[in-house]
Design a protein that fits this description.
It is built from 17 helices and no strands. The protein is mainly α and 477 residues long. It is globular and about 60 Å long. The two termini are 17 Å apart. InterPro entries: EmrB-like, MFS, MFS_dom, MFS_trans_sf.
Length: 477
């Protein structure tokens, strides 16, 4: 019996999607819950801001280190073993955070959580690409995109409400049942769909990958607060660049690389990955800068700033499955062009803010912006991954997620730094808001670059280059 017959007989896509979406939802929601709760944690555990910030920084750092290694893990272990291990680590980390009596234990919990979450995202994308035939992948990724967009936006709102009503530990108690139920259901339903090639463990590559991606992510994420000239930023960036360069050169020499950089030889994948990164930098503006504007300059509460992001999250959530179906019919080109026109216009609408700017204006423009983002993100990701041979899909998803992590860190640091440098303290609130306007000009330029890139997407790249398959495609028509 061949792979195709096995997959047809054993895989029920409905429950599988439910498992993947639940896991992704918990993992991504967890990333965004703590930001609003940090002041409460600081008071309870007697921490200063720079120490407390490590609770979010360490999660992103470990997450960023794990993602590039996931491609290697997918080829080394079975789908079931890897997914259950990732969800198990995530559950254990969440439980530790929920009962943590002090900062040190809480940090341990966050590291364990992140080690699981870093595996979950690229693994889920890989499974989706494996079990859906090419003409249905857009719809599948659209449903997946619903979660990716919805979870980060309801995170601050949910977190703001929870910490006002209950102790901050309630954040972890809310996530824990979802993770445990997902683990139990996955144990009985999940089948092995990825192919094991048992690549050799290259310890040096794993060390270099961790130092390279970890150094860059840490440098960019701390530059926003510490400044680009800070010693810790400069040292981590230099170490990151050297280690990453060494890592990349080493991968080309290995027979079975940890992360396959040859995926960038496929032009459509390279273009769509670059487009996703540019898009993410523009997107970070709304998620990072707007809450700072609302709470620090316009006098809104943390809950209200989270509530402002909610309409955009709902729009993006509902649109992702729709754009997935449109992608299956028409390809990514016009979806990306129209979406980026909307994103560019709405981003520049945030460059004329002042102290009289209303909650409604921010919520409506942000919602329109998210509408545009939904037309771009998942379609371009799917268009790029569709070009890869089956055996390169794990490397493609790992690369895609890694590049997004890097661009997210770069975007946050860049826009926060621009906002700080563009502020005019002598002019009070209006002077502070001027810095926000300048940061959105930079985000708008990023969106414009993306718009130019979108014109280079082929009309229907899936048909232009086809899929260069060197191993059997698991097709479940």
């Amino acid at each position: 019996m061949d792979e195709r017959q096995i997959t047809e007989e054993k895989i029920n896509r409905g429950p599988l999607m439910l498992i993947l979406i639940s896991g992704a939802f918990a993992a991504i929601l967890n990333q965004t819950l703590l930001a609003t709760a940090l002041p409460h944690i600081m008071r309870d555990l007697s921490l200063d801001a720079s120490t407390a910030q490590w609770l979010t920084s360490i999660f992103m750092l470990v997450n960023g280190i794990m993602i590039p290694i996931t491609a290697f893990l997918i080829e080394r272990f079975t789908t079931r073993a890897l997914f259950l291990t990732a969800m198990g680590l995530f559950a254990v980390g969440t439980a530790i955070c929920a009962i943590a009596p002090n900062f040190s234990i809480l940090m341990v919990g966050r590291v364990i959580q992140a080690s699981g979450a870093g595996i979950i995202m690229p693994l889920m994308q890989t499974i989706l690409m494996m079990v859906y035939p090419i003409e249905k992948r857009g719809s599948a990724m659209g449903m997946f995109g619903l979660v990716i967009s919805f979870a980060p936006a309801i995170g601050p709102t949910l977190s703001g409400w929870l910490v006002e009503q209950f102790p901050w530990r309630s954040l972890f108690y809310v996530i824990l049942p979802v993770v445990i139920i997902d683990f139990i259901v996955a144990y009985f339903i999940l089948k092995n769909v990825t192919k094991q090639t048992f690549p050799k463990v290259d310890v040096l590559s794993i060390i270099l990958s961790s130092l390279g991606f970890g150094g860059l992510l840490y440098g960019f994420s701390t530059a926003g607060n510490a400044g680009w000239g800070a010693q810790q930023v400069v040292v981590s960036m230099v170490v990151g660049v050297i280690a990453l360069t060494w890592f990349i050169l080493r991968q080309f020499k290995l027979k079975q690389p940890i992360l396959e950089f040859r995926v960038f030889k496929i032009k459509v994948f390279t273009l769509t990955t670059a487009l996703g990164m540019v898009m993410f930098i523009a997107l970070i503006g709304g998620a990072t800068i707007l809450p700072l504007l609302m709470q620090n300059m316009l006098g809104f509460t943390a809950f209200e700033s989270g509530l402002m992001l909610l309409p955009g999250a709902l729009v993006m959530g509902f649109m992702n499955p729709v754009t997935g179906r449109l992608f299956d019919k028409f390809g990514a080109r016009w979806l990306a062009i129209i979406g980026l026109v909307i994103v560019t216009i709405t981003t520049f609408m945030f460059t004329n803010l002042d102290s009289d700017t209303t909650f409604t204006y921010l919520a409506v423009v942000n919602a329109a912006r998210m509408f545009g983002v939904a037309m771009v993100m998942m379609p371009v990701t799917t268009a790029g991954l569709n070009q890869l041979p089956t055996h390169l899909i794990p490397h493609g998803t790992a690369m895609n997620n890694t590049m997004r992590q890097v661009s997210g860190a770069v975007g946050t640091a860049l826009l926060v730094t621009v906002m700080a440098n563009g502020a005019i303290p002598d002019e009070g609130v209006e002077g502070m808001i001027h810095g926000v306007n300048v940061s959105f000009i930079v985000a708008g330029i990023s969106a414009l670059v993306g718009l130019v890139l979108s014109f280079f997407i082929k009309r229907k790249p899936r048909e232009q280059e086809g899929i260069q398959v060197s191993r059997p495609v698991i097709d479940t028509k």
